[in-house]
UniProtKB/TrEMBL annotation, chain A:
GO cellular component, one term: cytosol
Name of protein: glutathione transferase
Keywords: Cytoplasm, Detoxification, Transferase
Keyword Transferase tagged: yes
InterPro entries reported in the protein's UniProt record: Glutathione-S-Trfase_C-like, Glutathione-S-Trfase_C_sf, Glutathione_S-Trfase, Glutathione_S-Trfase_N, GST_C, GST_Phi_C, Thioredoxin-like_sf
Domain GST N-terminal, residue spans: 3-84
Gene Ontology MF terms: glutathione binding; glutathione transferase activity
GST C-terminal domain boundaries: 92-216
Organism: Brassica carinata
Pfam families xrefs: GST_C, GST_N
E.C. number: 2.5.1.18
Catalytic activity as recorded in UniProt: RX + glutathione = an S-substituted glutathione + a halide anion + H(+)
From TrEMBL, chain B:
Protein name: glutathione transferase
Cleavable signal peptide: none
Keyword annotations from UniProtKB, A to Z: Cytoplasm, Detoxification, Transferase
Species of the source: Brassica carinata
Cell location: Cytoplasm, Cytosol
Lineage: Eukaryota, Viridiplantae, Streptophyta, Embryophyta, Tracheophyta
CDD domains in alphabetical order: GST_C_Phi (cd03187), GST_N_Phi (cd03053)
Chemical reaction(s) catalysed: RX + glutathione = an S-substituted glutathione + a halide anion + H(+)
Length: 216, 220
Protein backbone atom coordinates (compact mmCIF):
# COMPACT_ATOMS: atom_id res chain seq x y z
CA UNK A 1 0.00 0.00 0.00
CA UNK A 2 1.15 3.60 -0.40
CA UNK A 3 3.17 5.21 -3.16
CA UNK A 4 0.17 5.11 -5.45
CA UNK A 5 -2.22 7.23 -3.40
CA UNK A 6 -4.56 9.30 -5.54
CA UNK A 7 -6.98 11.95 -4.27
CA UNK A 8 -9.84 12.96 -6.54
CA UNK A 9 -10.73 16.49 -5.45
CA UNK A 10 -9.73 20.15 -5.50
CA UNK A 11 -7.64 22.11 -2.98
CA UNK A 12 -10.40 24.68 -2.28
CA UNK A 13 -12.86 21.99 -1.16
CA UNK A 14 -12.98 21.77 2.64
CA UNK A 15 -13.40 18.01 2.61
CA UNK A 16 -10.50 17.58 0.19
CA UNK A 17 -8.35 19.88 2.35
CA UNK A 18 -9.03 17.65 5.36
CA UNK A 19 -7.57 14.67 3.48
CA UNK A 20 -4.63 16.61 2.02
CA UNK A 21 -3.68 17.91 5.48
CA UNK A 22 -3.64 14.35 6.78
CA UNK A 23 -1.47 13.11 3.90
CA UNK A 24 1.00 15.95 4.46
CA UNK A 25 1.07 15.27 8.24
CA UNK A 26 2.01 11.69 7.40
CA UNK A 27 4.63 12.74 4.82
CA UNK A 28 3.06 10.49 2.19
CA UNK A 29 3.43 10.83 -1.56
CA UNK A 30 0.19 11.31 -3.41
CA UNK A 31 -1.29 12.65 -6.62
CA UNK A 32 -4.27 14.98 -6.88
CA UNK A 33 -6.67 14.14 -9.69
CA UNK A 34 -8.56 17.39 -10.27
CA UNK A 35 -12.36 17.27 -10.57
CA UNK A 36 -14.00 20.01 -12.63
CA UNK A 37 -16.86 20.88 -10.27
CA UNK A 38 -18.12 23.72 -12.45
CA UNK A 39 -18.55 21.28 -15.32
CA UNK A 40 -20.40 18.85 -13.04
CA UNK A 41 -17.62 16.25 -13.23
CA UNK A 42 -18.38 15.12 -9.69
CA UNK A 43 -21.75 13.78 -10.83
CA UNK A 44 -20.27 11.86 -13.77
CA UNK A 45 -17.75 9.11 -14.41
CA UNK A 46 -15.13 8.46 -13.20
CA UNK A 47 -16.00 10.06 -9.86
CA UNK A 48 -19.56 8.77 -9.56
CA UNK A 49 -18.22 5.19 -9.60
CA UNK A 50 -15.79 6.10 -6.82
CA UNK A 51 -18.39 7.95 -4.75
CA UNK A 52 -22.08 7.21 -5.41
CA UNK A 53 -22.98 10.44 -3.59
CA UNK A 54 -21.15 12.40 -6.28
CA UNK A 55 -18.94 14.32 -3.85
CA UNK A 56 -15.25 14.98 -3.48
CA UNK A 57 -12.87 13.74 -2.23
CA UNK A 58 -12.39 10.11 -3.14
CA UNK A 59 -9.14 8.33 -2.32
CA UNK A 60 -7.51 5.41 -4.06
CA UNK A 61 -4.76 3.45 -2.29
CA UNK A 62 -3.84 0.29 -4.18
CA UNK A 63 -7.11 -1.56 -4.69
CA UNK A 64 -8.90 0.32 -1.91
CA UNK A 65 -11.34 3.08 -2.86
CA UNK A 66 -12.73 5.32 -0.12
CA UNK A 67 -14.95 8.38 0.15
CA UNK A 68 -16.17 10.50 3.12
CA UNK A 69 -13.22 12.65 4.19
CA UNK A 70 -13.34 11.61 7.86
CA UNK A 71 -13.25 7.89 6.95
CA UNK A 72 -10.31 8.60 4.63
CA UNK A 73 -8.34 10.55 7.26
CA UNK A 74 -8.88 7.83 9.88
CA UNK A 75 -7.75 5.17 7.41
CA UNK A 76 -4.58 7.13 6.60
CA UNK A 77 -3.86 7.81 10.27
CA UNK A 78 -4.18 4.13 11.18
CA UNK A 79 -2.69 2.47 8.10
CA UNK A 80 0.35 4.78 8.20
CA UNK A 81 0.49 5.17 11.96
CA UNK A 82 4.25 4.65 12.00
CA UNK A 83 4.93 7.39 9.44
CA UNK A 84 5.15 11.13 9.93
CA UNK A 85 3.20 12.84 12.71
CA UNK A 86 1.10 10.85 15.17
CA UNK A 87 -2.56 11.72 14.57
CA UNK A 88 -4.19 9.16 16.82
CA UNK A 89 -2.90 8.33 20.30
CA UNK A 90 -2.84 4.54 20.19
CA UNK A 91 -1.01 3.88 23.43
CA UNK A 92 -3.22 5.50 26.01
CA UNK A 93 -6.72 4.03 26.34
CA UNK A 94 -8.19 7.20 27.80
CA UNK A 95 -6.81 9.54 25.12
CA UNK A 96 -7.77 7.11 22.34
CA UNK A 97 -11.36 7.07 23.62
CA UNK A 98 -11.43 10.85 24.15
CA UNK A 99 -10.18 11.36 20.58
CA UNK A 100 -13.18 9.35 19.37
CA UNK A 101 -15.47 11.68 21.34
CA UNK A 102 -14.01 14.90 19.90
CA UNK A 103 -13.93 13.45 16.37
CA UNK A 104 -17.70 13.02 16.75
CA UNK A 105 -18.10 16.46 18.33
CA UNK A 106 -16.54 18.02 15.22
CA UNK A 107 -18.77 15.98 12.93
CA UNK A 108 -22.03 16.24 14.88
CA UNK A 109 -21.88 19.53 16.81
CA UNK A 110 -19.40 21.86 15.09
CA UNK A 111 -19.53 21.05 11.40
CA UNK A 112 -23.32 21.11 10.78
CA UNK A 113 -23.40 24.74 11.98
CA UNK A 114 -19.96 25.97 10.90
CA UNK A 115 -20.15 24.56 7.38
CA UNK A 116 -23.53 26.27 6.79
CA UNK A 117 -22.00 29.51 8.10
CA UNK A 118 -19.01 29.10 5.76
CA UNK A 119 -21.46 28.48 2.91
CA UNK A 120 -23.26 31.75 3.70
CA UNK A 121 -20.13 33.83 4.29
CA UNK A 122 -17.76 32.39 1.67
CA UNK A 123 -19.10 29.86 -0.82
CA UNK A 124 -22.32 31.65 -1.77
CA UNK A 125 -20.17 34.55 -2.98
CA UNK A 126 -18.07 32.18 -5.10
CA UNK A 127 -21.28 30.79 -6.64
CA UNK A 128 -22.73 34.22 -7.43
CA UNK A 129 -25.37 33.90 -4.68
CA UNK A 130 -26.17 36.42 -1.91
CA UNK A 131 -25.42 35.88 1.80
CA UNK A 132 -28.56 35.73 3.97
CA UNK A 133 -27.87 37.95 7.02
CA UNK A 134 -30.67 36.35 9.07
CA UNK A 135 -29.18 32.90 8.46
CA UNK A 136 -25.72 34.19 9.46
CA UNK A 137 -27.11 35.63 12.69
CA UNK A 138 -28.95 32.40 13.52
CA UNK A 139 -25.92 30.22 12.75
CA UNK A 140 -23.52 32.44 14.72
CA UNK A 141 -25.85 32.28 17.74
CA UNK A 142 -25.71 28.48 17.57
CA UNK A 143 -21.96 28.37 16.95
CA UNK A 144 -21.09 30.49 20.00
CA UNK A 145 -22.73 27.89 22.26
CA UNK A 146 -20.47 25.23 20.78
CA UNK A 147 -17.40 27.49 20.98
CA UNK A 148 -18.10 28.21 24.65
CA UNK A 149 -17.83 24.46 25.25
CA UNK A 150 -14.58 24.38 23.25
CA UNK A 151 -13.23 27.29 25.34
CA UNK A 152 -13.92 25.35 28.53
CA UNK A 153 -12.39 22.18 27.07
CA UNK A 154 -9.25 23.94 25.82
CA UNK A 155 -8.80 25.49 29.25
CA UNK A 156 -8.14 21.94 30.49
CA UNK A 157 -5.87 20.68 27.71
CA UNK A 158 -3.93 22.28 24.84
CA UNK A 159 -5.68 20.17 22.22
CA UNK A 160 -9.20 18.74 22.10
CA UNK A 161 -8.31 15.13 22.94
CA UNK A 162 -5.54 15.98 25.39
CA UNK A 163 -1.90 17.01 25.27
CA UNK A 164 -1.28 16.07 21.63
CA UNK A 165 -2.55 17.26 18.27
CA UNK A 166 -4.85 14.61 16.82
CA UNK A 167 -7.24 14.13 13.92
CA UNK A 168 -9.92 15.62 16.18
CA UNK A 169 -8.17 19.00 15.91
CA UNK A 170 -7.19 18.53 12.24
CA UNK A 171 -10.76 17.93 11.06
CA UNK A 172 -11.64 21.49 12.08
CA UNK A 173 -8.95 23.17 10.00
CA UNK A 174 -10.67 23.73 6.64
CA UNK A 175 -13.88 25.34 7.92
CA UNK A 176 -12.08 27.39 10.57
CA UNK A 177 -9.63 28.59 7.93
CA UNK A 178 -12.46 29.89 5.75
CA UNK A 179 -14.41 31.45 8.64
CA UNK A 180 -11.28 33.24 9.93
CA UNK A 181 -11.26 35.13 6.62
CA UNK A 182 -14.73 36.56 7.35
CA UNK A 183 -16.43 38.72 10.03
CA UNK A 184 -17.27 35.48 11.84
CA UNK A 185 -13.65 35.38 12.99
CA UNK A 186 -14.70 37.50 15.95
CA UNK A 187 -16.43 34.45 17.45
CA UNK A 188 -13.09 32.63 17.58
CA UNK A 189 -10.80 35.57 18.39
CA UNK A 190 -12.91 36.62 21.38
CA UNK A 191 -12.32 33.27 23.10
CA UNK A 192 -8.67 33.22 24.27
CA UNK A 193 -8.17 29.45 24.49
CA UNK A 194 -9.94 28.80 21.20
CA UNK A 195 -7.90 31.56 19.57
CA UNK A 196 -4.65 30.12 20.91
CA UNK A 197 -5.61 26.66 19.66
CA UNK A 198 -6.42 27.98 16.20
CA UNK A 199 -3.07 29.77 16.01
CA UNK A 200 -1.29 26.51 16.89
CA UNK A 201 -3.12 24.23 14.51
CA UNK A 202 -3.07 26.61 11.55
CA UNK A 203 0.68 27.10 11.95
CA UNK A 204 1.41 23.41 11.38
CA UNK A 205 3.66 22.90 8.32
CA UNK A 206 1.27 20.33 6.84
CA UNK A 207 -1.57 22.88 6.87
CA UNK A 208 0.64 25.56 5.36
CA UNK A 209 1.38 23.14 2.48
CA UNK A 210 -2.36 22.63 1.88
CA UNK A 211 -2.90 26.39 1.63
CA UNK A 212 0.05 26.64 -0.74
CA UNK A 213 -1.73 24.20 -3.06
CA UNK A 214 -4.64 26.62 -3.32
CA UNK A 215 -2.36 29.28 -4.71
CA UNK A 216 -1.13 27.04 -7.52
CA UNK B 1 -17.56 -2.94 37.46
CA UNK B 2 -20.24 -2.93 34.73
CA UNK B 3 -20.36 0.00 32.32
CA UNK B 4 -23.00 2.63 33.08
CA UNK B 5 -25.12 4.18 30.34
CA UNK B 6 -26.92 7.39 31.28
CA UNK B 7 -30.16 7.88 29.37
CA UNK B 8 -33.48 6.24 28.51
CA UNK B 9 -34.09 3.42 26.09
CA UNK B 10 -36.60 5.54 24.16
CA UNK B 11 -33.83 7.86 22.95
CA UNK B 12 -32.56 6.76 19.54
CA UNK B 13 -29.00 7.76 20.44
CA UNK B 14 -29.13 5.79 23.69
CA UNK B 15 -30.61 2.80 21.82
CA UNK B 16 -27.65 2.93 19.42
CA UNK B 17 -25.34 2.30 22.40
CA UNK B 18 -27.59 -0.37 23.93
CA UNK B 19 -27.67 -2.29 20.63
CA UNK B 20 -23.86 -2.26 20.60
CA UNK B 21 -23.63 -3.48 24.20
CA UNK B 22 -26.00 -6.37 23.45
CA UNK B 23 -24.17 -7.30 20.24
CA UNK B 24 -20.97 -7.36 22.30
CA UNK B 25 -22.65 -9.41 25.09
CA UNK B 26 -21.42 -6.82 27.58
CA UNK B 27 -23.08 -6.21 30.91
CA UNK B 28 -24.16 -2.69 31.67
CA UNK B 29 -26.36 -0.66 33.98
CA UNK B 30 -28.85 1.82 32.50
CA UNK B 31 -29.13 4.95 34.63
CA UNK B 32 -32.28 6.88 33.66
CA UNK B 33 -32.02 10.61 32.98
CA UNK B 34 -35.32 12.46 33.18
CA UNK B 35 -35.28 14.52 29.99
CA UNK B 36 -38.77 15.90 30.58
CA UNK B 37 -37.57 17.32 33.92
CA UNK B 38 -34.46 18.64 32.09
CA UNK B 39 -32.03 16.68 34.26
CA UNK B 40 -29.68 16.58 31.24
CA UNK B 41 -29.21 20.34 31.66
CA UNK B 42 -28.20 20.16 35.33
CA UNK B 43 -24.57 20.92 36.24
CA UNK B 44 -24.08 17.34 37.46
CA UNK B 45 -24.95 16.04 33.99
CA UNK B 46 -23.15 18.79 32.09
CA UNK B 47 -19.96 17.84 33.90
CA UNK B 48 -20.23 14.49 32.09
CA UNK B 49 -21.42 15.86 28.72
CA UNK B 50 -21.07 19.62 28.26
CA UNK B 51 -23.48 19.42 25.30
CA UNK B 52 -26.24 18.28 27.69
CA UNK B 53 -27.28 15.24 25.66
CA UNK B 54 -27.79 11.55 26.26
CA UNK B 55 -26.20 9.04 26.13
CA UNK B 56 -23.17 9.23 28.39
CA UNK B 57 -21.04 6.17 29.09
CA UNK B 58 -19.00 5.64 32.24
CA UNK B 59 -16.43 2.86 32.22
CA UNK B 60 -14.38 3.00 35.43
CA UNK B 61 -12.59 6.36 35.28
CA UNK B 62 -13.57 7.06 31.66
CA UNK B 63 -16.58 9.22 30.80
CA UNK B 64 -17.59 9.39 27.13
CA UNK B 65 -20.36 11.07 25.16
CA UNK B 66 -21.50 11.12 21.48
CA UNK B 67 -23.21 7.77 20.75
CA UNK B 68 -20.98 6.90 17.76
CA UNK B 69 -17.82 7.49 19.82
CA UNK B 70 -19.28 5.28 22.55
CA UNK B 71 -20.13 2.45 20.13
CA UNK B 72 -16.65 2.71 18.57
CA UNK B 73 -15.11 2.51 22.06
CA UNK B 74 -17.20 -0.52 23.10
CA UNK B 75 -16.58 -2.30 19.79
CA UNK B 76 -12.84 -1.72 20.16
CA UNK B 77 -12.59 -2.64 23.85
CA UNK B 78 -14.51 -5.87 23.31
CA UNK B 79 -13.28 -6.64 19.81
CA UNK B 80 -12.70 -10.28 20.67
CA UNK B 81 -16.21 -10.83 22.05
CA UNK B 82 -19.65 -11.09 20.47
CA UNK B 83 -20.36 -9.76 16.95
CA UNK B 84 -17.39 -8.35 15.03
CA UNK B 85 -18.76 -4.84 14.51
CA UNK B 86 -15.65 -3.23 13.01
CA UNK B 87 -13.82 -6.01 11.06
CA UNK B 88 -10.77 -5.02 13.05
CA UNK B 89 -8.53 -7.78 11.65
CA UNK B 90 -8.33 -6.20 8.20
CA UNK B 91 -7.39 -2.53 7.75
CA UNK B 92 -9.17 -2.22 4.40
CA UNK B 93 -12.36 -3.76 5.79
CA UNK B 94 -12.18 -1.49 8.86
CA UNK B 95 -11.93 1.52 6.53
CA UNK B 96 -15.04 0.42 4.59
CA UNK B 97 -16.97 0.08 7.87
CA UNK B 98 -15.89 3.62 8.84
CA UNK B 99 -16.88 4.88 5.38
CA UNK B 100 -20.46 3.64 5.65
CA UNK B 101 -20.60 4.82 9.28
CA UNK B 102 -19.73 8.30 7.99
CA UNK B 103 -22.43 7.95 5.33
CA UNK B 104 -24.94 7.29 8.14
CA UNK B 105 -23.61 10.28 10.10
CA UNK B 106 -23.56 12.84 7.31
CA UNK B 107 -26.10 11.70 4.70
CA UNK B 108 -28.72 9.51 6.37
CA UNK B 109 -28.93 10.96 9.88
CA UNK B 110 -29.48 14.66 9.05
CA UNK B 111 -32.40 13.84 6.73
CA UNK B 112 -34.10 11.14 8.80
CA UNK B 113 -33.71 12.95 12.11
CA UNK B 114 -35.21 16.13 10.63
CA UNK B 115 -38.30 14.15 9.52
CA UNK B 116 -38.63 12.38 12.88
CA UNK B 117 -38.19 15.66 14.73
CA UNK B 118 -41.09 17.21 12.84
CA UNK B 119 -43.42 14.20 12.83
CA UNK B 120 -42.75 12.72 16.27
CA UNK B 121 -40.94 15.17 18.56
CA UNK B 122 -42.65 18.48 17.63
CA UNK B 123 -46.18 17.14 18.25
CA UNK B 124 -45.04 15.81 21.65
CA UNK B 125 -43.78 19.25 22.59
CA UNK B 126 -47.29 20.50 21.84
CA UNK B 127 -46.50 24.10 20.95
CA UNK B 128 -46.64 24.03 17.18
CA UNK B 129 -47.46 21.88 14.18
CA UNK B 130 -44.99 19.93 12.06
CA UNK B 131 -43.37 22.04 9.36
CA UNK B 132 -44.51 20.39 6.12
CA UNK B 133 -41.81 22.10 4.05
CA UNK B 134 -39.03 20.71 6.26
CA UNK B 135 -40.60 17.24 6.10
CA UNK B 136 -40.89 17.34 2.30
CA UNK B 137 -37.36 18.66 1.78
CA UNK B 138 -35.86 15.99 4.01
CA UNK B 139 -37.98 13.14 2.63
CA UNK B 140 -36.57 14.03 -0.77
CA UNK B 141 -33.01 13.98 0.58
CA UNK B 142 -33.68 10.71 2.38
CA UNK B 143 -35.07 9.17 -0.81
CA UNK B 144 -31.84 9.98 -2.66
CA UNK B 145 -29.75 8.45 0.12
CA UNK B 146 -31.91 5.32 0.08
CA UNK B 147 -31.46 5.09 -3.71
CA UNK B 148 -27.71 4.81 -3.09
CA UNK B 149 -28.38 2.22 -0.37
CA UNK B 150 -30.66 0.25 -2.73
CA UNK B 151 -27.87 -0.04 -5.26
CA UNK B 152 -25.24 -0.82 -2.62
CA UNK B 153 -27.37 -3.50 -0.96
CA UNK B 154 -27.85 -5.13 -4.34
CA UNK B 155 -24.11 -5.89 -4.23
CA UNK B 156 -23.55 -6.66 -0.54
CA UNK B 157 -25.80 -8.06 2.17
CA UNK B 158 -24.93 -5.26 4.58
CA UNK B 159 -23.67 -1.75 3.94
CA UNK B 160 -19.98 -2.42 4.56
CA UNK B 161 -19.92 -5.92 3.11
CA UNK B 162 -21.29 -9.33 3.91
CA UNK B 163 -21.42 -9.07 7.67
CA UNK B 164 -23.33 -6.82 10.09
CA UNK B 165 -21.23 -3.96 11.44
CA UNK B 166 -21.53 -0.63 13.23
CA UNK B 167 -22.30 0.92 9.84
CA UNK B 168 -25.65 -0.93 9.84
CA UNK B 169 -26.22 -0.73 13.60
CA UNK B 170 -26.06 3.06 13.75
CA UNK B 171 -29.10 3.28 11.46
CA UNK B 172 -31.37 1.03 13.44
CA UNK B 173 -33.07 3.28 16.02
CA UNK B 174 -34.00 6.07 13.58
CA UNK B 175 -35.20 3.63 10.92
CA UNK B 176 -37.36 1.99 13.60
CA UNK B 177 -38.98 5.32 14.45
CA UNK B 178 -39.21 6.33 10.79
CA UNK B 179 -41.13 3.13 9.99
CA UNK B 180 -43.80 4.26 12.47
CA UNK B 181 -44.59 7.32 10.34
CA UNK B 182 -46.74 7.31 7.21
CA UNK B 183 -43.59 7.47 5.05
CA UNK B 184 -42.44 3.89 5.63
CA UNK B 185 -42.89 3.40 1.88
CA UNK B 186 -39.48 5.01 1.34
CA UNK B 187 -38.03 1.82 2.83
CA UNK B 188 -40.71 -0.68 1.78
CA UNK B 189 -40.68 0.40 -1.86
CA UNK B 190 -36.97 -0.39 -2.19
CA UNK B 191 -36.64 -4.21 -2.12
CA UNK B 192 -32.97 -4.38 -1.09
CA UNK B 193 -33.37 -1.73 1.60
CA UNK B 194 -36.51 -3.44 2.84
CA UNK B 195 -34.79 -6.84 3.05
CA UNK B 196 -31.84 -5.24 4.85
CA UNK B 197 -34.13 -3.54 7.37
CA UNK B 198 -36.05 -6.77 8.01
CA UNK B 199 -32.75 -8.50 8.69
CA UNK B 200 -31.59 -5.74 11.07
CA UNK B 201 -34.76 -5.94 13.10
CA UNK B 202 -34.66 -9.70 13.38
CA UNK B 203 -31.38 -9.62 15.33
CA UNK B 204 -31.58 -10.73 19.01
CA UNK B 205 -29.92 -7.50 20.16
CA UNK B 206 -32.64 -5.49 18.44
CA UNK B 207 -35.40 -7.58 20.02
CA UNK B 208 -33.94 -6.69 23.44
CA UNK B 209 -33.72 -2.94 22.71
CA UNK B 210 -36.86 -2.24 20.65
CA UNK B 211 -39.32 -2.56 23.56
CA UNK B 212 -37.66 0.58 24.95
CA UNK B 213 -38.22 2.58 21.74
CA UNK B 214 -41.62 3.75 22.89
CA UNK B 215 -42.09 7.17 21.30
CA UNK B 216 -44.91 7.05 18.79
CA UNK B 217 -46.04 9.59 16.22
CA UNK B 218 -49.06 11.62 17.32
CA UNK B 219 -49.87 12.88 13.84
CA UNK B 220 -48.64 11.93 10.41
Amino acid sequence: MGGGIKVHGVPISTATMRVLATLYEKGLDFEIVPVDMKAGAHKQEPLISLNPFGQIPALLDGDLTLFESRAITEYIAEEYSDKGEKLLCQGCKKVKATTKVWLQVEGQQFDPIASKLAFERVFKGMLGMTTDPAAVEDLEAKLVKVLDIYEARLSKSPFLAGDCFTLADLHHLPIIYYLMGTDSKKLFESRPKVNEWIKKITARPAWVKVLHLQKQ
Amino acid sequence: MAMKVYGDGMSACVARVLLCLHEKETEFELVPVDLFACHHKLPSFLSMNPFGQVPVLQDDDLTLFESRAITAYIADKHKDKGTDLTRHADAKETAIVKLWSEVESHHFNPAVSAVIHQLIVVPLQGEKSPDAAIVEENLEKLGKVLDVYEERLGKTKYLAGDSYTLADLHHVPYIYYFMKTSHAGLVNDRPNVKAWWEDLCSRPAFLKVSPGLTIAPVTN
